[in-house]
Amino acid sequence: MIWRFRFVFFILAFVYAVIIARLFYWQIVKAEDLSDIASSQYSQEIKLLPKRGEIKTSDGFPFVSNIVSYLLYANPKVIEDKDKVIDNLSIYLGSDTASLSALLSLDRFWVSLESDIDLGTKKEIEKLELGGIGFEEQFSRIYPEASMAAHLLGFVGKDTLGQDKGYFGLEGYYDRLLRGEEKSIIEIQDALGRPILSRMTEILKGTDGNNLVLSIDRTIQYIVEKKLKYSIERYGATSGMVGIMDPKTGGMIALASFPSFSPSQYQDFEEDVFKNPFISNAYEPGSTFKPLIMAAALDASLVTPQTKCDICGGPLSVGGFTLRTWNNEYFENIDMIDV
């Protein structure tokens, strides 16, 4: 009799232990996952991308600005006729049917289908009234002055996650400052999946990107680039660069390099052209540095315009090296004006 009692007791204890273990698993171990699944059935998190900061010239004209575009997304779990959605969207999007089919086959609540969609295309897609399809407002970069100051500005491309990111130039160096912080809100939905506008909760406050105001003079920049291109074509040079600095402040008034590229169509150019040679390349100043040396000597009263050069009559030995003129011609006892 006792062994039967013990047998039943152990069976009941085992059953209770299994039940407690399963309750612990679902309520403790998997609690966060279950909460996410439940939340996804009546709410969704919407991320609002910040407006990227503008880059302006010294007169306040936008070198780089933004236009409104749209991101097309889908919820594959609620799309009933995926073939219909694929056939209709492929007409308006750059993606082929195979790519759209792969995206809509994912076991996700949200997938990105296409970015940088203009307002006209958005309205045409909305007329189709496709279930499970939606749009998010985003900003696309525009360059009103086309390729002007391209090396200085850089461009905005995509990172590995498909998010906007600045590369090269000011867009790359000040990317975090220009990018800002995205805003997140929770949108509550009713039983039919329709948003309840009065039940939107902000969970992350975002800020738009900061603007950059440069010392660049737009008119001088245009003249410099025009003259630089003309000179390179006239003399058959492969490249060239010009920089103009305000000697009182050290601010750059113009900075141009050639060959250049178009920031809005950067994908059509080789990566080597993106680097700003004025900053990235090593360059031996040579004779172009002589006026600075002469100016410093005159300012320090070490020489005068009439001072004679007593070492200009031939090659000069310095530190075991012999320095010569480019054509091996020398002029003895010339003054600083002739030098």
Q: In terms of per-residue confidence, which ranges show pLDDT below 50 for 5 or more consecutive residues?
A: none
Name given to the CATH architecture of the domain at 45-146 and 183-212 = Alpha-Beta Complex
The total count of strands amounts to: 14
C-alpha Rg (nearest Å): 34 Å
Bin the strand percentage: 15-25%
Q: Which structural class best describes the helix and strand composition?
A: alpha+beta
CATH topology name of the domain at 45-146 and 183-212: Penicillin-binding protein 2a (Domain 2)
Terminal CA distance reads 123 Å
Query: What sort of overall outline do the alpha carbons produce when their principal axes are compared?
Result: elongated
Helix content: 25-40%
Encode the helix/strand succession as letters: HHEEEHHEHEHEEHHEEEHEEHHEE
Q: What is the name of the CATH superfamily of the domain at 45-146 and 183-212?
A: Penicillin-binding protein 2a (Domain 2)
Average pLDDT rating: 82
Tally of separate helices: 11
Q: What's the CATH class label of the domain at 45-146 and 183-212? A: Alpha Beta
Mind summarizing the main beta sheet?
5 strands, mixed
Compact description:
With 339 residues, this protein is of the alpha+beta class. It has helices at 2-29, 31-42, 82-92, 97-104, 119-127, 150-153, 169-173, 175-179, 218-235, 277-280, 290-299, and strands spanning 43-48, 55-56, 62-74, 111-117, 133-142, 155-158, 164-167, 183-189, 195-204, 212-213, 240-245, 252-258, 316-318, 321-323.
